Amino acid sequence: MWWLEGFRSGMGRLEILLLVYTLLCSLGDCLFVTDYFTRTPRKLNAYRSFASVELFHFNVPEDTVVAVWNLITFKEQGGTFGDSCPDRNVTVYFRSGAPPVINPLQTRFPKDTIVPGSFAVTLTWTLPNRTTGVFNVTSPLPGDWFLAAHLPKDEGKISVKGLHEECQYLFQPQLIVQRLIGISVLYPGYFIDQMIPLHNRSVLYKVFIPNYISRVKVQLVDCNTKNRSGESCPVLLKIRSRAPPVHNSSAMDCRENVPCDLEVPLPSWEQWYYILVERYLSSSDVYFRIGVQVKDCSKPSVSKGSSAMNMPQSFGTAMGFSLSETLPAASLPNVPQNASDQGSLLTAEDSITYLAPTADTNKCWPVRPTLRNELDTFSVHFYIFFGPNISIPPDRAAIFAINLMPVLDSGGVLNMELKLNVSSVRGENITIFGCLNHGMPLSLHDNTSVSCESESVSGFHLSINTTTNITKLRIPYPQTGTWYLSLRSLCATEHGFEMCTNVTAEVYLRSYLTPCINDCGTYGQCKLLRTNNYLYAACECKAGWDGWGCTDNTEAYSYGFQLLSTLLLCLSNLMFVPPVTIAIRSHYLLEASVYIFTMFFSTFYHACDQPGIVVFCIMEYDVLQFCDFLGSLMSVWVTVIAMARLKSIIKQVLYLLGAMALSMALQLDRHGLWNLLGPSLFALGIMAIAWTVRTIRRRRCYPPTWKRWVFFLFPGTTIATSAVALYAFVETEENYFYIHSIWHMLIAGSVGFLLPPRAKPDVKVTPLKRRRGCGYQLCVNEHEEMGLVDPAIITINSICTS
């Protein structure tokens, strides 16, 4: 039973525990313990693929009757509460046994892919910076539980790191479980006297079902109330595998059925079954005798077909022990040791009765195990003994077991491939049907049914024939445990499918585990992710492709579009050719070499950085990216320093120091805002100081000519400012290829305008010619300055020229 209880801010742990206590008071004497689990808050991301979700792993103990997830979401901005951040819905998915397979964008899954179900909850905001949701699960399945959370898909804007305080949405799940202790254990074949007191509403039992059990029947007999009057039994009988029963579990109303029997055909093997006896409203105690009967199919009556199955007879019980081996009669006191070998009803005491299990006429056929070969993480092959070619006899099913390890294997993809050898069927119109089930094999009887579902178990269907002799099946994030593949050959007739006669089909079977589906194809990358100690894999798609295996081409880029975007990003760097020419003609050789370096590595970096198939890499991607970023920053640095018109030695020292400082900054953070803004501001500060000194010395504005300001500095500054604005505020993932190309052209164009003209050569400064007119000239003898004559004797000559 699943439901969303509600979302309320400020719901504390006390209120949750009160809610849990209310739910548990209907289960006997309310003997339970409380366990509390929490996880560290994590930042949520907008959904793009499963690689962008945050995955949380919990473990629910056995005998848990209720699990309460407290879902806490809050906002942060700049280390404080993000009251001004917009409200964005948070979607949380729940699944037992393996991570949830989600599809919020409604994309297409790869062919032959099975999509397991999951439960989703959307959290809405009740406070400006915080919201809390409660999700209750009554009688959850024990073991691994996974939560996946994400934000809605955004518009794909590329933001500059550090430009503004980013709104962060943090999510923290907490789990509170209540589990019963001291649940009464029933043993198959034993009947015990029980009662439901007046102050209790129900009583809970559990029984373990081993391998090779074809049917389970719960019997409730000798039911009466305290006064021993009345013929009806006022109780409701329920049963469920792995967890206590819920409202939609298999049930039987004992008021209308005497004796009260509840059967479960094809039960799950090696699992606990929980039995709930719930009484209706009455004013007296209820007495009854309860027991569990099973049908054992572990011992075939004949050993026929062992050679046809290509396996030794001992493999028939390789997957576990039968009932007689797991539940000896000596496990219960006061029961004779030979009780299990007798077919009649034996009584040790009045309160305990033993009835030997009955044999099933439809024998369970041997289950062939598989050999597990681990090659790498999520790279496992399951080899069949005496395979991979297997023989399917006409009169029975061939059953194979594949065991997936807990936690280790649930983060990959289970692949199954079948191929029919057409020559082996000798022209018969034969079809091989397969059922892949978790927990128990489904094809146990010699009939012509091709369904892979029962009352309690549903599986996945496969089929091959002489026309379509190959089939595949993929299950992303499979549940761990034992998977059973049952193969059966049937012949098509006018009246449907019938059992074949004297035709043994040969089938090639391949089963293996991979990280991703087809390694995410041409337009995807398979990423190995980790959440705490749990590993899982997911595809990250590119070039507009989408879907779980990057096979949905609804919004995919065409080859022409990929080629156009690559050419634009690469050829736009040719705009650096004019600045290089200007720098060489102006004798700025160091600056020209930096521009050539930038043009070269920017071209080949963008040729290697493309998401599609139009990709060309001359060296490692990381090296190209570092050189491109370094060249871009050095181009800005040397241009602004050159505009300062410093002495040659000072300029060269600043170039060298800038290259070393920028290399260090790029190693620390290549995408930070201050990597571009810091060197630019520092260089502009040097330039401003140099220009101010020249202005003060010359007592006129520097640069001195208005043409330099109007036709060079102002256009260059405007172009550079426009480029920075496009880069910081306009660029998105969709318009990246042409906005970034414009950025290349604008930056290169601004360099051509801002680079100063050629510096004049250094010459000896001569005194300025005086204008003609009257004046005085102070004549100083060289000997006077050297102190060789009397400084009081100074001659002043009058100069009068016309």
UniProtKB/TrEMBL annotation:
Q: Which organism is it from?
A: Cirrhinus molitorella
Question: Transmembrane stretches, by residue range?
Answer: 674-697, 709-730, 736-755
Q: What is its main location?
A: membrane
Q: Which Pfam families match?
A: DUF3522
Bilayer topology: Multi-pass membrane protein
Magnesium in keyword set: no
Q: Which InterPro entries match?
A: EGF, NGX6/PGAP6/MYMK
Q: Keywords for this entry?
A: Cell membrane, Membrane, Transmembrane, Transmembrane helix
PANTHER family from the entry? FIVE-SPAN TRANSMEMBRANE PROTEIN M83, TRANSMEMBRANE PROTEIN 8B
- Subcellular compartments: Cell membrane
In this chain the EGF-like domain maps to 539-550
Provide the protein name. EGF-like domain-containing protein
Please state which protein family the record places this protein in. Answer: Belongs to the TMEM8 family.
Question: What Gene Ontology cellular-component terms does the record carry?
Answer: plasma membrane
